[in-house]
Target: Sterol desaturase
Amino acid sequence: MHVEGSPYRIWAAGVLLILIVAEMVWSWRNDKKVYQVKETLTNLGIMAGFQFTKVLFTGYQLAILGWAYRYRLFDFESSAGLFAIGFIVADFTYYWFHRASHAWKPLWAFHLIHHSSMWMNLTTSYRLNWFSAIVTPVFYLPMALLGFPPLMIALAVGLNLLYQFFMHTDAVGKLGVLEGVIDTPSAHRVHHGCNPIYIDRNFGGVLMVWDRIFGTYQPETEKVRYGITSGFVSHNPFVLVLHGFVDLFKGKMKYKG
Model:
């Protein structure tokens, strides 16, 4: 979900771009080969399309949440404490939304594109389906019904997704005591792995405690193989965005492609 009008958007975009360039330099200097030209251009094309549809669907998303908020059970007074609680509730909701996106074929049709890259780098984080905004707010309706304001929900979800940008990298190793507590690059590498041991693991957005509680946590123990089990799909952004839906309607859909 998305909130318009933030004066920090250009600065944030600049910082993210600097980090991507820094990762490219790190990869080149250390011969890590985590970037591939066609794949990176594909990711940038997908990102451009996603940014357009994000703006296009913002009104729809807030309208859905606003409708539910009219029937809220409680009237909370806005405060930093309420936002902190809302952030945790949003992260818990994200865990189940993310897990459902791997378990239910119609949702996997939206999510498949994010796992289709065979490289892991910061640009992979924006490999998102252009139409995911259609289904995303539905999972956050319970928050609005409880009494969390729509803009607060949107901000919490937006910060959650921003945090995950930093998880899409091979440049950061394990982070000691933080592993298994919060999402880390190591934990998220596992999530993107198509190794049998890594499939259906580490769904948390910011907190990894949900995976601990519900039995889906897996530490990084072997070299990660990225992508879906059926292998390479395409470098065409339109093919990638529609690939999951085509397979779904043809009856060919299976988990991890």
About this structure: The first helix runs from residue 9 to 29. The two ends are 26 Å apart (CA to CA).
